[in-house]
């Protein structure tokens, strides 16, 4: 197994520091190959000793051998006729691309489940069932997920609102109550509008849970709970189905846990809302 594959599927159990270093190599592989160990430690925030141990865990005798092998892999990857994702080439068949996209989606879900923190999910469920109103907020493609999430929870009797407009988000966050809960969905975890909304929500005493792929997001400063998922996007993949699928999967997991904890209320509310919608259909 080569280095890039091992970074996605290590044959050892990575420590927290290993995980940070692996993320750094994925994002800044070229810099890693050309920087001395002291600079790498400073850039990645990981000690020199940890970097040395990590290289040995990956099966290399020293850092220099690791750098040479990584540089060769990165050079070979960059010479491919790639588009969208480095696993997909311009000259492959539609069926081949379809199978690769399916594999990417399955692997993203597998990695997300593998690193899932059950306690965080359980505490998120408690916030939703014990609180007052729930605000799902997100912008762009995450905004679609926020809207869909609110609809799901409304159907089982929870007071949920989905917001995908920055002005409306700030308006609601300025009037939010201490018993309310905000679920902020942000793939990058770096949206300035979502950050401002999170800051305002916490200032007004609301609970905040964040769903993101970025373990280093500034949103952690304001969040009560953070749920992380494992996907990456290139420029042409922005808004990919893999990211939305993984976000929706987490929401669906939380939704399912809520239903498990209050099955009778959920079934009754779902039936009541279905009956109400049927009335509209019959009147058309």
Keywords for this structure?
single chain, 5-stranded parallel beta sheet, two-stranded antiparallel ribbon
Q: Termini, distance in Å?
A: 60 Å
Envelope shape: globular
Structural class: alpha/beta
List the secondary-structure elements in sequence, H or E: HHHHHHEEHHEHEHEHEEHH
Largest sheet strand order: 4-3-5-6-7
Overall pLDDT score: 88
Uncertain spans, ≥5 residues at pLDDT below 50?
A: none
- Major beta sheet, specifics? 5 strands, parallel
Strand-residue proportion: 5-15%
**Number of H/I helices:** 13
What's the alpha carbon Rg, rounded to whole Å? 22 Å
Count of β-strands = 7
Percentage of residues in helical conformation: 55-70%
Strand and helix map with partners:
Layout: H1 3-8, H2 16-27, H3 29-34, H4 37-44, H5 48-57, H6 63-78, E1 82-83, E2 85-89, H7 94-114, H8 118-130, E3 134-137, H9 141-154, E4 160-163, H10 166-174, E5 181-185, H11 192-203, E6 207-212, E7 225-228, H12 241-261, H13 263-283
Parallel strand pairs: 3-4, 3-5, 5-6, 6-7
Antiparallel strand pairs: 1-2
Helix pairs in contact: 7-12, 8-12, 9-12, 10-11, 12-13
């Amino acid at each position: 197994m080569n280095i890039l594959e091992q970074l996605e599927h290590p044959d050892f159990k990575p420590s927290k520091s290993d995980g940070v270093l692996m993320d750094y190599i994925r994002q800044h592989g070229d810099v890693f190959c050309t920087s001395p160990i002291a600079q790498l430690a400073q850039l990645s925030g990981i000690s020199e000793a940890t970097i040395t141990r990590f290289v040995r865990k990956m099966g290399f005798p020293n850092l220099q051998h690791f750098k040479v092998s990584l540089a060769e892999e990165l050079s070979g990857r960059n010479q491919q006729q790639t588009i969208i994702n480095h696993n997909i080439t311009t000259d492959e068949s539609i069926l081949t691309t379809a199978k690769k996209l399916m594999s990417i989606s399955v692997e993203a879900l597998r990695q997300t489940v593998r690193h899932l923190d059950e306690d965080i999910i359980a505490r998120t469920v408690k916030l939703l069932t014990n609180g007052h109103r729930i605000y799902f907020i997100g912008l762009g493609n995450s905004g679609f997920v926020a809207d869909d999430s609110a609809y799901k929870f409304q159907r089982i009797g929870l007071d949920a609102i989905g917001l995908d407009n920055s002005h409306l988000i700030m308006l609601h966050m300025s009037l939010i109550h201490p018993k309310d809960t905000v679920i902020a969905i942000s793939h990058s975890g770096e949206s300035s509008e979502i950050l401002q909304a999170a800051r305002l929500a916490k200032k007004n005493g609301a609970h905040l849970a964040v769903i993101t792929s970025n373990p280093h997001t500034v949103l952690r400063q304001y969040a009560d709970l953070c749920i992380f998922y494992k996907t990456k996007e290139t420029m042409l993949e922005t808004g990919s189905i893999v990211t939305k699928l993984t976000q929706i999967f987490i929401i669906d997991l939380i939704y399912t846990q809520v239903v498990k904890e209050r099955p009778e209320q959920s079934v009754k509310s779902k039936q009541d809302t279905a009956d109400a919608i049927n009335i509209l259909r019959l009147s058309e």
